[in-house]
Inverse folding.
């Protein structure tokens, strides 16, 4: 998995500077899309499998980004993503 979101520098990079940062990522994604990637083994395929990859891009504001990635909003009372705990009264409950 690639997460491209941190670009080093003291100020916003120019277009040509940004292209140099993204070029290795794009090269890897082109190969992964055209030829696929051989995974040595997975849970379902112990002898490995060929995985064809693609990239999805989304440009939006923070509330829309939380909806697309299925994260809770900043004022959500559901603080755990794996259980049904609700509100701060259940915080620290280990049963």
């Amino acid at each position: 998995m690639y997460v491209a979101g941190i670009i080093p520098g003291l100020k916003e990079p120019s277009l040509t500077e940004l292209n140099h940062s993204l070029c290795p990522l794009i090269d890897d994604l082109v190969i992964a899309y055209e030829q696929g990637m051989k995974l040595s083994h997975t849970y379902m395929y112990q002898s490995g499998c060929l995985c064809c990859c693609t990239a999805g891009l989304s440009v939006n504001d923070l509330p829309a980004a939380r909806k697309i990635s299925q994260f809770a909003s900043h004022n959500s009372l559901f603080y755990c993503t794996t259980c049904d705990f609700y509100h701060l009264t259940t915080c620290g409950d280990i049963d």
